[in-house]
What does this fold into?
Amino acid sequence: MTIHAPAVPTIEDVHAAAARIKGHAIETPLLESPALNDRVGGRVLFKPEVLQRTGSFKFRGAYNKISSLSPEERARGIVAYSSGNHAQGVAAAAKLFGIDAVIAMPIDAPAIKRRNVDAMGATVITFDRFKDDRDAVVKSYVDAGRVLVKPFDDPMIIAGQGTIGLELVAQAADLGAKLDAVVSPCGGGGLISGIALAVKALLPSTEVWAAEPENFDDTRRSLAEGRRVANASGFRSICDAILTPEPGEITFEINRRALSGAVAVSEKDTAAAMRDAASHLKLVVEPGGVVGLAAVGSGQIDLSGRCVAVVLSGGNVDLSVYARLLSEA
Amino acid sequence: MTIHAPAVPTIEDVHAAAARIKGHAIETPLLESPALNDRVGGRVLFKPEVLQRTGSFKFRGAYNKISSLSPEERARGIVAYSSGNHAQGVAAAAKLFGIDAVIAMPIDAPAIKRRNVDAMGATVITFDRFKDDRDAVVKSYVDAGRVLVKPFDDPMIIAGQGTIGLELVAQAADLGAKLDAVVSPCGGGGLISGIALAVKALLPSTEVWAAEPENFDDTRRSLAEGRRVANASGFRSICDAILTPEPGEITFEINRRALSGAVAVSEKDTAAAMRDAASHLKLVVEPGGVVGLAAVGSGQIDLSGRCVAVVLSGGNVDLSVYARLLSEA
It folds into this structure.
């Protein structure tokens, strides 16, 4: 019997990613709102990746992955599947490197995400996120020699997203804050596993929590069962960015050791968190990007007297949808 | 005949303000959008003061002014009149210094502004912005010994707002950008005169442009006539933050020498700029805060091949109004 061990990235990989993306990705600031601090009775530091190039954290991992490709691989082009934010990150990084990119996106992806990918010169093909197998959708392109840039289950992608953790730790220290916990949205787990890798290496006692939409809480249930379990089919959610079928193999290998837990948040709490982000932080955050704040706002993670960093992972929401959710007070 | 010369602040006053507000005000980042750059054919660097403490630049000047008061003056308390952003800046600074504050706000000020001032413990009185004389409204409080913290026509207020200019110049240099012009919203002129003071001292050939709402373009007409002229009465505007009756005496003394010009923007262009800020920058910007981007977007300021900094001065807009303006595509 052989034990299958996935290739888990290390803190050195995250440091290497930070060196690669420097000057290309934005070092997003840490923001806070005295009003929100008062409400939760603790200190909440926000990491607004909505201000990142392409409007989400995904550029970090995509740039790190693509920068590691050989000249031969770059010449053959790349292919990716994505709910939309990874698509934009890959398209932006591919454009910077002058690489041809084919990107498969769900047919129901927000128009803003599709439009931005088109504008960056990538070729878009579509699939049904609730029916089609993603790897099958891109198979012919991979067979033709293109490198598949996975959305989360890849050491270079995870290491790239982990640069957020390095920044978080350094920026909180600059503020004189002791980070008790970090809360991040979680889909396939690339973002939170990268952050956990970095944060746990630097601050071992800091908790890392995942936030997921209700009915798409595969990481929460997988942590409880100690093995990867998939989401039930048939559900819908406004959190289009983080509706993955199940945790990644590599990401879960990291998360099952590093996370303190995961919480599921309702659509109502998600919309309320979008309104709080607009009112108190002046940030446009998409549903899937705001679930960390929703988790904090719903009282599921204890904040009293503690300092917690919340990652706002993306802001690519159609204005018509956004306006509707802001109005539902 | 004596020539009346207003007490104009100097670049040294701006440097002193920067030292005072350090660690209290946020050094807001410079942001840019490749998509917006492509559209205008130049490079636009945004200074998002919506991310400043209290959601607008006003905290800078208010903190600088209040920090300069003597212990005796602080003990007597302060009074201010404001359309809402200065009110929040003053209330926040007063709270930090433990000073009693009375603030007169227009009866039609956005609810978010009134709510935030209340939450910071200031006493609010109201007035009619289209009828009442602002100085008369606060006269009894001044007579009782309170220091009046003016919204713009005060050297310490202007110097505080000017710290944005210092940051802009340093941050643009960090990006390797040569600043051809700076565009800023303009009401009474405290923000833009402070910025002009700083920018012109450091980069004499950089242009500084004011953006105003149509029918409230008193600075544009004053520059054309070479003397301060008031706005006609009877008009309304969504840009509540910058509807002042006429330019300040001190601010105009600076602006008439330092500005390259001023442009008036329509409500339609203002709403479009709010949508652009949400889509491309992920920032919630209030109508009066976004007129600089509206001026750039309307083509009234030439950007082709140039690098222009645009100040987004505030983001305190009621969500119901914001949602309506986002939907008017």
Q: What stands out?
A: Strands of chain A lie at 43-48, 78-81, 101-106, 123-127, 147-148, 181-185, 207-213, 261-265, 307-312. Chain A has a mean pLDDT of 95. Chain A has two domains: 11-56+155-328, 59-148.
